[in-house]
Design a protein that fits this description.
The chain is mainly α. It has one domain: Glycosyltransferase (Alpha/alpha barrel). The protein is built from 14 helices and no strands. Helix 1 runs antiparallel to helix 3, helix 3 runs parallel beside helix 13 and helix 5 runs parallel beside helix 7. It is globular and about 50 Å long. It comes from Trifolium pratense. Its cofactor is Zn(2+). This is Geranylgeranyl transferase type-2 subunit beta.
Length: about 325
């Protein structure tokens, strides 16, 4: 079996950041904030965050903040809860949360909670359990969980639970591994994991492993490296990770590397991108692959960063 070519992945991530005119950068322009989170978190897990200029990143992030308190995907873009979490996560990576007006960001998140406990993604109102996770994760990092209605938020998430043990994006929505990560992560952060039938959900999740060792996001779908994050983190949070073959999954992820130019793709022989490079490296970290920092399955941040947030006061 091959090895993780970490040095090449570091070089790949840094090169994408520099090549602002490349195809990938143009496509990513509107979600640059998410891209920054993926790339920088991957670098941190590989122990190479010090190759980036902290002040440059922090000042760019702050220039993406809107007067409402939310952050946009890039300078001058409209704020959205998706980018707001990424901005807060990246500031946490650099231990720079003190530059942000915590109450201003919190007020933006609080303004997006609906009467039924759900969260909208922005002023346009789309509701999704992704936004419940993001809101809860974000205010928790900011030590402001008490500012949202946690009881209602949890109740809404539970209303999105299906008979198969999984969760969808809204009540009645089909179970999907991405939404399951969001719901399990939100329940983990709020201390509500006892509301999950762990054996039932664990069964659905471990059935996501296919012959090649990779994981898919729903029955009958193709495996994809990003589910090494969505599925695996969920299995860890409910204590059922021993229900899949770790060795086979490690092999699948390593097979998705571009061992010459660096980067990781969704499945073997596809083109690499920063998103799957992050999820591949994060998945390997969850699998305790040697040489990588451990990552927290609920906050999606390195464990030392989470410890810094909660235990440094
Ligand atoms: C901090 C890690 C982190 C996340 C923030 C944005 C977010 C919260 C969570 C997204 C969860 C989600 C819905 C992930 C799924 C992404 C994905 C690969 C969607 C593709 O779905 P389909 O149905 O693909 O197009 P399949 O694999 O089913 O063919
Ligand atoms: Zn994917």
């Amino acid at each position: 079996m091959g090895e993780l070519v970490a040095d090449k992945h570091v070089r790949y991530i840094l090169s994408v950041e520099k090549k602002k005119d490349s195809f990938e950068s143009v496509v990513m322009e509107h979600l640059r904030m998410n891209g920054a989170y993926w790339g920088l978190t991957a670098l941190d897990i590989m122990g190479k965050l010090d190759t980036v200029d902290t002040n440059e990143v922090v000042s760019w992030i702050m220039s993406c903040q809107h007067e409402s308190g939310g952050f946009g995907g890039n300078v001058g873009h409209d704020p959205h809860i998706l980018y707001t979490l990424s901005a807060v996560q990246v500031l946490a990576l650099f231990n720079k949360l003190d530059v942000v007006d915590v109450d201003k960001v919190t007020n933006y998140i609080v303004s997006l909670q609906n009467e039924d406990g759900s969260f909208s993604g922005d002023i346009w109102g789309e509701v999704d359990t992704r936004f419940s996770y993001i809101a809860i994760c974000c205010v928790s990092i900011l030590h402001r969980l008490d500012r949202i209605n946690v009881e209602k938020a949890v109740k809404y998430i539970i209303s999105c639970k299906n008979m198969d043990g999984g969760f969808g994006c809204t009540p009645g929505g089909e179970s999907h591994a991405g939404q399951i990560f969001c719901c399990v992560g939100a329940l983990a952060i709020t201390g509500s994991l006892d509301l999950i039938d762990k054996d039932l959900l664990g069964w659905w999740l471990c059935e996501r492993q296919v012959k090649s060792g990779g994981l898919n996001g729903r029955p009958e779908k193709l495996p994809d490296v990003c589910y090494s994050w969505w599925v695996l983190s969920s299995l860890i949070m409910i204590d059922r990770v021993h229900w899949i073959s770790k060795e086979k999954l490690i092999k699948f992820i390593l097979d998705c590397q571009d061992t010459e130019k660096g980067g990781i793709s969704d499945r073997p022989d596809d083109a690499v991108d920063v998103f799957h490079t992050y999820f591949g490296v994060a998945g390997l970290s969850l699998l305790e692959y040697p040489g990588l920092k451990p990552i927290d399955p609920a906050y999606a941040l390195p464990v030392d960063v989470v410890d810094q947030i909660f235990f440094s006061k």
